[in-house]
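Before relying on records like the one below, remember that each one covers exactly one chain. Contacts with other chains, cofactors or solvent are not represented anywhere in the record.
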Amino acid sequence: MMKKVLIVVAALAVGLLAACCTKTTEPELDSTEFVNITDVVPDAILEIRYFGTYNFVGTRIDGYLQPTALLTRKAADSLRAVSDDLKAQGYRLKIYDAYRPQCGVDHFVRWGKDLDDTLMKPYFYPNESKDSLFIKEYIATRSGHSRGSTLDLTIFDMRTEKEVDMGGTFDWFGRESHPDYCGNPETGEYTGENGTLTAQQFENRMILRRAMLAHGFKPYDCEWWHFTLKDEPYPDTYFKFPVQEL
């Protein structure tokens, strides 16, 4: 009898421990509803800037363990529709960044506060003083990327086998990166007023924008390359798990 009692007590203890673990598991660490983008969009080109050193910080960013790109399943499915649309026009997607763990955002914040570190200023923010980057919201303590349904991307021309000329580089801090630079993104009208983009460069940005908006994404006013799924599944959760193959 005593043996049976001990077995029951042990079983109850294991059950309580499992329940406690379930209750204390942080949802921010749960990658269950995320996928590798290339599992859904196999021909997407990945150039994960924050895994390497060619980015505005100049070093690999915390939390990027592998040069891959992750999204929520819902966002990835919508991106597949974007890919199919653009493929019919002769383009492929090229991804710079997608899901970004909170520790990566924290890395940006630490860098932003170190005003002496201007290693990459000539390449990404030559016309901006570093102490203005928080004020102008180029850097923030929270990022939509950490919610898992935001990504940064461009398009690749399958005919020329080159990245399409957007008239500016990814992560350029400045007016030139705004979607309304040299035109009206709502109508697609090119004006060229007080700017350096050609009509073709502006239209190239619009090709990407039209495809993203047509398949459920919304744009960001300051970056032509940045889009978020309108109906994102985790609007209030900022995930913490690292970027690596799932």
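The first helix runs from residue 2 to 24.
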